[in-house]
Amino acid sequence: MRIACLVALVARQILVVDDEEAIRVIVQASLEFTAGWTVLVAASAVDGLQMARAERPDAVLIDVMMPGTGGVELLKLLRSHPLTADIPAIFLTAQIDLAEQETLKSLGDGVILKPFEPVAIAQKIRSILGWPD
């Protein structure tokens, strides 16, 4: 019981990989303020992959549509490396149809649709990953 309480007090570390600076800033500010989590940001899949391998975050939020290497390809690269294979990944994407959403859910751990309420994103992440409040 005591160990569980201590684990709950440890701040989560989240990596946000999105080519849009505004999204990175909003997500970072929201998660740091509302959840007290440490947020790492990367503007490209290449940078995100390097950061994930170096930092081993508790979860990665990945934009689907990025120039160059896209989000789905980034997730495949993360899953293929032993240091990052088990890191939960949630896709961030604009409105898509239900079939596309289900496809993304089958590849990663979940999907958060853009636009989203910044104050609610931490709760969405907790809900998708089964993390306690």
UniProtKB/TrEMBL annotation:
Q: Where is the Response regulatory domain?
A: 13-129
* Keywords tagged on the record: Phosphoprotein
PROSITE patterns, alphabetized: RESPONSE_REGULATORY (PS50110)
Q: Can the keyword Phosphoprotein be found in this entry's annotation?
A: yes
Q: Name one Pfam family in it.
A: Response_reg
Superkingdom per UniProt:
Bacteria
**GO biological process terms on file:** phosphorelay signal transduction system
Task: Tell me where in this chain the PTM 4-aspartylphosphate is found.
Answer: D63
Q: Which PANTHER family match?
A: CHEY SUBFAMILY, STRESS RESPONSE REGULATOR PROTEIN 1
What is the protein name given in its UniProt record? Two-component system response regulator
Organism the protein comes from = Leptolyngbya foveolarum
